[in-house]
Design brief:
Glutathione S-transferase Yfyf (Class Pi), Chain A, domain 2, globular, alpha+beta, Glutaredoxin, 4 strands
Length: about 200
């Protein structure tokens, strides 16, 4: 069984969803419940995945490890399609994720109110540009990987939920919203959300 260290609603949620899609049993442990989390991951970030004495960190690396380890429909086998799938995962993890992370940075930075609003607006503008890229990619296909859900779609769906916590206007086009709605309704996604909620209530 896998052990997944997480923060509620964070990018680790995508890892849990993928584990459910892969039919892999997982025990989830909140980072906040660990006395010295840096002993598990010196960087202090989630997700952290453990199994059989091995520890895996960094979201994209964890995702690729899982997809390459377990047979699945999320990760194509054909060379060109797989290369595109990896590119999509890196876009989600290394481009969209940091764009949203700027909102969290602004929220925890001591700025005057005008400066804070300006910083929020700048971050939101960058995020909106990236969602426009996703919107264009989905003009002729339902998901980033084509006609089936990919890991990148799951990752982007998790990130899309973060904007509601900030005083910003995030504009997600109809193609991207259709993809997000599909992923949100997946049993694996709902199971992952419910798992986090049960942990929080325990």
């Amino acid at each position: 069984m896998y052990t997944l260290y997480y923060v509620p609603g964070a990018c680790s949620l995508a890892t849990q969803v993928v584990l459910h899609e892969l039919n892999q049993p997982v025990q989830i442990i909140s980072k906040q419940a660990v006395g010295d989390f840096h002993a598990i991951n010196p960087v202090g970030t989630v997700p952290v995945l453990q199994k059989d004495g091995e520890t895996y960190t960094e979201g994209a690396a964890v995702m690729l490890h899982l997809l390459e380890t377990h047979p699945n429909a999320l990760f194509p086998t054909e060379k060109a399609a797989r290369a595109q799938a990896i590119q999509n995962i890196m876009f989600a993890n290394a481009t969209m994720h940091p764009a949203y992370s700027k909102l969290f940075f602004v929220a925890h930075t001591d700025l005057s109110e005008p400066a804070k609003q300006s910083a929020y607006a700048s971050a939101a503008s960058n995020i909106n540009q990236l969602w426009n890229v996703v919107e264009d990619r989905l003009a002729n296909q339902n998901f980033l990987g084509g006609e089936t859900v990919s890991a990148a779609d799951i990752m982007l769906t998790v990130y899309s939920r973060w904007g509601a916590s900030f005083p910003v206007d995030i504009h997600i086009g109809p193609n991207a919203q259709k993809m997000i709605d599909h992923v949100l309704a997946m049993p694996s996604f709902q199971t992952a959300l419910n798992n986090e909620q049960r942990q929080a209530a325990a």
